[in-house]
Amino acid sequence: MSNAAIGNKTVTRQKQTSGLMRRIIKNKAIYLMILPGFVYFLIFKYIPMSGLIIAFQDYQPYLGIANSEWVGMKHFKRLFTEPMFFTILRNTLVLFAINLLFYFPVPIILALMLNEVRRAFFKRFVQTVIYIPHFMSWVIIVSISFVMLSMDRGIINELIAMLGLEKINFLMSNEWFRPMYLLQVIWREAGWGTIIYLAAMAAIDPGLYEASRIDGANRFRQMWHITLPSIRSVIIVLLILKIGDVLELGFEHIYLLLNSMNREVAEIFDTYVYTAGLRQGQFSFSTAVGFFKSIVGLILVMFANWLAKKIGEEGIY
Prior knowledge:
mainly alpha, about 70% helix
């Protein structure tokens, strides 16, 4: 490569760098707003990824990462041959499917219903009521459920007894664990999930509704032919992100519901990592489990995004 070509490339890079700096200075307020989120993800998400290296080691805390023995894929092989692996995988996938099929549509339906409310005071009141559970921790949500569903003076079992039926041990039952889990997720998160959909609906051109009314469309037809198509891209993006959490159901909620009687249907990867990693000190093995979860989530997000683009949607990238 000639000196002239090298010089041209250097000049081009310098121009690009100076152009970038000018844009940053011009939009400094926006970049300052981004900064806290960037720092958060850098410190708590990206820097800790360097610790994934211990998934390929027999990590010993007193030796450190640099001096621990390399074992290659040993922990991943152990994971796939563990007697509990397929039970944990089944439980995780079943709970994810329940979330996707029964919880995911609920915020959309709630947002559509709220969008049809014309009295501003009533709409704000309902929004406030359904948002409140999101600000309560899972400890509070599960504790309230325990009080209501307890065999000993729980209000639900008291009502069942008043009807002359036998009390149900909801908290220790394999059959009732999944419905109880689903109802708690809907109770806590459904209202909060409506925020993005309501924001998307607020951006719809009111002229579309006026034109449809002139054509004789009722409220249901307007919702079906205008509102839903207008927020379809938002639904697709949130669905793609949801699919990425296929093995990431959240530790705290499941752990609070988990007990020796329902472990067969309640044990998932998150609680298994806690048991193996923190309680038993198997740091390398638990890291391998977490690594496996992340890889599966990444592959599914990429596949879902590719599929969304194939059917004409924008996707997330």
